Structure formats: structure tokens, C-alpha cells
């Protein structure tokens, strides 16, 4: 469904297990592929699959500034540790990762090229992780409106600057072996669980 109000274009994108299995993921992939200047994503649980990882890496390599605002507090073993094995690849490509520190992060939003006529933003219930993109029923609203995108961008950049901690690629690579082991265990469990459900991610 799509609606227009005062020149604003908004589209409701649903994810279910029948006809709309990959709509939210495809919307992200298209928007990231078209990005020319900036991609900002804020997610509580962030474990992107291969396609999303490649899209973010390619965007960073072609000169797009890619910034992620992610959960910085330990809440659940799987969500916390399974996310970390993908950080290395993203950091190596020049993606900035900021971990939100004041409290638990619940945001599920993104904004792309807010200052252009192609401004794109999304707000909804879907994280970029296997549960949201493969199993759960989710709904996102995609908004193509520069003022909305600019306001969202301003809020996210403020949170990154004042409430986030930016990961240093070298310090991340040198994190303790125990942390790295827990990360690999959680990531392995997640992949095994997906394999048992018949899903590829």
C-alpha cells in the first residue's frame, strides 16, 4: 500500500511467510544499491545475511559513507555475540560502527541520501537479522521525503555523536580470544538453527 500526503510518498512493506517473504530485505537492498552519498542504519539486532553484507561493503567501497548504530549493551547471548563475526568485514571496508551505550537500543530505522531528491527512509518493526527477515511477521513504512529523512538523519547522527561509542577496527581485531570464541559459537549456533528450519541466509 502506498499513500501521499503534502507531497510525501509513503509505502507500507509487509513481511510474511506466504507471498511477501523477502519484501523488506529487497527494499533495503535496492535502496543501498542506489545510495550515492550516505547510508545510516540503526538496529537493535543486526546480523545481516550475505546479500546485505555485500551491499553495505560495495556501497562503502564506491565512496558512500556507511554508518551503523547498533546495540552496545549485552541483552541476549545470541543476538549480542552472533552479530560480531560480521563486524570485521564491514569495518575493513570502511563501514563505521557505533554502539549505543546509554540504554538498550530498540530502533529499527534507516535513512539514505537524506539531502538528495532520492531521499529514502524506513521506520518499522524489522531488524536486519534472520528472525526478522526470515521467520517473523514484520511491517516497515518506507518514506521518500527529504524533510522527513533529514530530520531522522539529524537524530541518528546526534545519537552516534553523543550516545554511541565508535568501534576502532584495530581494537576490534585485537579483542580477547574468549570474546572471539563466544562470537564464533553464537554465529555457528545461529547458522545451524537456520539450516534446521530449511532457511538459507
In CATH, the architecture is 2-Layer Sandwich
Helical fraction equals 40-55%
Q: What number of domains?
A: 1
Order of helices and strands: EEHEHEHHEEEHEHEHH
What's the CATH H-level homologous superfamily?
Answer: Endonuclease Chain A
CATH class: Alpha Beta
Q: Let me know the largest β-sheet.
A: 9 strands, mixed
What is the overall shape? globular
Terminus-to-terminus distance: 27 Å
Give the overall pLDDT as a whole number: 90
Q: How would you characterize this protein structure?
A:
The chain is of the alpha+beta class. It has one domain (2-197): Endonuclease, Chain A. It is built from 8 helices and 9 strands. A 9-stranded mixed beta sheet has the order 1-2-8-7-6-3-4-5-9, with helices on both faces. A hairpin with a 7-residue loop joins strand 6 and strand 7 (120-124). Helix 1 runs parallel beside helix 2 and helix 3 (77-83) crosses helix 8. The radius of gyration is 17 Å and the shape is globular. The relative contact order is 0.19. The mean pLDDT is 90.
Amino acid at each position: 500500500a502506498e499513500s501521499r500526503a503534502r507531497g510525501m510518498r509513503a509505502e507500507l512493506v509487509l513481511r510474511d511467510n506466504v507471498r511477501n517473504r523477502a519484501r523488506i530485505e529487497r527494499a533495503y537492498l535496492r535502496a543501498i544499491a542506489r545510495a550515492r552519498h550516505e547510508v545510516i542504519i540503526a538496529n537493535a539486532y543486526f546480523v545481516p545475511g550475505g546479500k546485505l553484507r555485500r551491499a553495505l561493503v560495495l556501497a562503502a567501497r564506491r565512496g558512500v559513507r556507511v554508518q551503523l548504530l547498533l546495540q552496545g549493551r549485552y541483552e541476549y547471548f545470541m543476538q549480542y555475540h552472533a552479530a560480531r563475526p560480521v563486524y570485521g568485514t564491514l569495518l575493513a571496508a570502511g563501514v563505521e560502527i557505533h554502539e549505543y551505550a546509554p540504554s538498550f537500543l530498540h530502533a529499527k530505522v534507516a535513512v539514505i541520501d537524506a539531502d538528495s531528491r532520492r531521499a529514502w527512509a524506513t521506520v518499522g518493526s524489522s531488524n536486519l537479522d534472520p528472525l526478522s527477515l526470515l521467520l517473523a511477521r514484520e511491517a516497515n513504512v518506507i518514506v521518500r521525503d527529504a524533510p522527513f529523512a533529514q530530520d531522522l538523519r539529524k537524530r541518528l547522527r546526534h545519537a552516534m555523536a553523543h550516545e554511541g561509542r565508535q568501534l576502532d577496527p584495530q581494537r576490534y581485531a585485537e579483542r580477547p580470544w574468549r570474546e572471539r570464541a563466544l562470537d564464533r559459537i553464537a554465529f555457528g549456533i545461529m547458522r545451524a538453527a537456520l539450516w534446521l528450519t530449511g532457511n538459507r541466509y
